[in-house]
Structure formats: structure tokens, C-alpha cells
């Protein structure tokens, strides 16, 4: 029961007025950016990283970041349902049935099942996180360099294979990121690499710079070039019809199953390196579509199709925290940005984190519970307010983001050169968006790349330069084989179709949007 | 003799309705022709002032029912609404522009600007403004 005691200690930290304030800021900002298409939790956390430089303790920063992530999930469901524009990629599945429900005058029920489902799933998955994190951390102590190397390869490969529309583009993005990660003085030999003899680049490119450049500046340029689009219309909310928390007895009955199943899909897929929340949301959606009692209603606004995916996307975040906290292994863009935040505070996520900074870990886990209670209380009553955010003219919105991004970079380094580098990276980010290259593999590559190299060298040192060390340890070999299988996964539907003797062209490639 | 052209800035809101109502009355008085403009700059993700196809049709039907000769145009993503209205008035040599207005807070006006104010200050022809 030591976990329970630790968790209570975490609650004691979080339930102070100051920490609660940071949680409120986090969930509010998160909901705002979740509502806005194109601006996801990864960008927001990246923009706030420079702000947290001034914090003495990392705890409030992480409480805020967790709030942002969860808030973005709640906010994303709001626009999916009312506007049919998913605010972030994990809400795409929600939009399908959710908007249909709204058009048929069940907007409130759709919003409520999304919010309550997210809440239920977050409670379940955070509970699982609290139970699982420490044992996994203890297991991780026995991992060797070759295992870490294999795990990182697996994380990089799965994210690359699963986001975006093309594996080749994903791999190019990944290699670009790894290359950017290598810029600077080599940690062991002190040799400058890819610096073009310019001392400016000796320290490498700061992760904050890279993230702000690729996400915030890149997205701004992309929106600028795309120009004006026809604005959408928000489906009006119908008058409250009674029922408990906007859901009728029948809707409660139809929702709870998908919530629990969604949480069941979300958590494990978050734990496994699978690129975040998209995969489990779609799995949950198709499960409910084919198996649930309301399946004949699918396409006409089935509540199961909203309840399941929403629960899955929230549950996956707690899952994502497991490898991040116990192994220092980010499995989504947002997790990569959070890893950068750990580095700012000189914290090394991994097995030691639970021993040396257990107060931080448990405060973070407790804040997930607190944040979700806040979101449930804030979200439904304030929906009209959140929707208003969408009426802000884009020039005003993105000018604000650009100012914030520039200020942030300047506050980190105090040099104009860094601002120029960030804008250069921004142009790169714009080109990647324009030509359909996924961004997430680049971020992961740049952040994990140097660490990957470290573990690679360490393993070779131990093995006296023998490359077979990676395949002689069963655990490392198994993980590497998994990574190889992950490369084929996007083509699985086509391969299955061919095996069954059907036309492979009909089966689509498995692909998910990135960014979050 | 040419008939007077009355340009109306219309949105599916109480202000818009008030403007159309006043414009119809004015058209009857002068035996004029209505030119209804529904416009949005297309800068935001959501703009509830853009009329849907059904709302446009409903307006056309209503004006036909009232026996007013009219033209209803929607322009999204070109100029600001004020510029659209002024442009139409200019092009058609309008005799009158009709606008619906509402109470605005000073801060709201500072941040978002006011379509009505721009039209009032820049229009070459008389402007009739109706408070909803």
C-alpha cells in the first residue's frame, strides 16, 4: 500500500492554493488551445517552457503541463462535436458521430458523454498509472544500455510508422530530427559536428528553440499561406431536456460500457510506443461501431461513437506518462516536449526519478486527478465561452502566438541569433507541413537522437565494440524485432487483404494525424 | 428614370432583421430596389454572421413575398464586411445604405472594430442606421 500513501502525499502537495492556481491556469489554457484547430498541447507547452525557467520548483510547471494536455483533450471534443472541426488529431474519431448527434439536436448529450467519459477514463487510467509506474520503474533498473537502445528505436519507429500518410516521409522527418539532434560538440570526444565551424552552434540547437520553431512558427506561416477559408458555423445547443448532467437515463446506460472499454484501449496503447492517442481512439471507435448495442445507429449520431473514443484519448495520456516517467522515453510529440521540460529542471526521467524526486512524481499523478475534476466542473457550464474563442480573427490570434514565441526564445537565450535560427526552423516546419511531412518524428528524433547515440556507444563499450551485443540479449532482440514489425504495421490492412485474396487497393493504409 | 438602389448590410441576427425591415419600408416609399449584402472576411474559424443557404433562401422568399424587387449576395473571404457594403454602394450608385446596429462596449469596439462605424464615416451616400 505504499503507493497509496505516496499518492496521498501527492494530493497534500497539489491541494495547496498555489498549486491549484497552476492547475487552473493549465486546464484553462489547455481547453483554449484544444478548441483552436492547429494549436495543440505540444505547441502550448513549448511556448510555456521559457516561462517555467523562472520557477524554483518543477512541480508547479508539471502540474500546469498536465492540465494543458488534459484540457486540450476536453477542448478538442467540444469543437469536434459542435463544429465538426477536430481541434486536435485525437478528436477526429469523436467528430464523426459527435457532430452527427449535434446536428440532430443532441449536442448537449454528446458534449456530456465526452466530458464525463473523459473524466471516468482519466480516473481509471491515472489509477492504473499510480499502480503500474513504480513496479515498471523498478523493472527498468535491470535494463541495460542495449535494451534502452532497442526501446528508443522502437519508440522512434512506431511513431514514425503510425503518424502521417507515408512511411518514407515519416522516416525522412525522423532522420532530419536525428540530424538536428547531432548538431554541436560531441559529448564524448568533444569534436564539433555539423556546426559549419560556427561557435554559435557548438552547444547544439536548444530543444525549446526547435519545438517553438517547428510547431509555433511553422504553423503560423502555414496558416498565413493557406489564407482565408470559409468559416464554419457552430451548431446551436438545444435547450436542456433534463436528465442527470445533460444525459438521460438511457444515454447513461449506453455510455458507461464504451467509457470503460475506451479506457481499456487507451491506457495500454499510451504505455506502448504508438504515437499517442490516435490509434486507441480509432480502435475504440471501430469496436463500438461493430460490436456495441447501438451499432445500427452509427452514422446517424450514436452516443457510443462519442463516449468510447473520448474515453480512449484521455486514458492514453496517463499511459504515455508510464514510459516517460519510468524510462525517460517519450512516445508522442507532447511527451517529447515534456521530456525537454524535465531536462530544463535537470531532472532525468527514469528509474531514479521515483527515488530521488518521488514528491514530484506523486504530485504530478495527484494533479491529474485534480485537473480532471476541475475540467469536468469547468467544461460543460462554460461551453459557450470556449466556442467564442473560435470567433477571434486568425491574424490577431497568430500574431499573438508569434509575439509570444519570439519573446520566449529571446528570454531563454538573450541572443538575436537564436531568434533567427528559430525562424529558420519555422520555415522548415512550414515546408514540412506544406509538403505533408509529419512533424512529430522530427521532434522525437531530435530529442531522442543524442540519447540513442549515448546508449549505442555505451553498449558498444561494454561489448568491446562487438555489434552483436544488440542481438544476443533476448530482451533487446525481442524489442528490435517488434520495431521491425512496427514498420510493417501501416501496411497490415493491405497485406491481410492480399492474403484473403481481395483487391489490396481497396484496403487503405493505416495512418493517423500527428501534432499531438 | 432609374429606380433608387438601396444597399442593406444583413446578417442573420436581430440587427440584420431590423435593417431589412427598415429597408423594405424605405423601398416601398421610394419604389426602390434592394441589394442585400451578407459578408465575412473569413478570418476566424467560426463566423455566425454568415447566413446559411437556408437563411439566404428564406430571406429571398420573404422579400419576394413582400413584393420587393431585390438581389441577395453573399461574399466570404474577400474584404471586411464594411468594405463589401461600401463597395456595393459605390458600384451600384446606391441612393441609400441601411444598417442594423447594436450597443457595443468601448473595449469590444477597440478590439474588433465596428462595421457600422466604418460605413457611416466612409459612405458617399446617406446611411440609415436602425438600432435592433
UniProtKB/TrEMBL annotation, chain A:
Q: Which residues form the DUF112 domain?
A: 20-444
Entries under InterPro entries matching the protein: DUF112_TM (IPR002823)
Record carries keyword Aminoacyl-tRNA synthetase: no
- Tell me which UniProt keywords the record has, alphabetically: Membrane, Transmembrane, Transmembrane helix
Top-level taxonomic group: Bacteria
Listed transmembrane segments: 20-49, 61-83, 109-133, 145-164, 171-188, 208-225, 320-342, 362-383, 395-425, 475-492
Question: Would the keyword Cytoplasm be found if you checked this record's keyword annotation?
Answer: no
Identify this protein by name: Tripartite tricarboxylate transporter permease
Organism of derivation:
Nocardioides iriomotensis
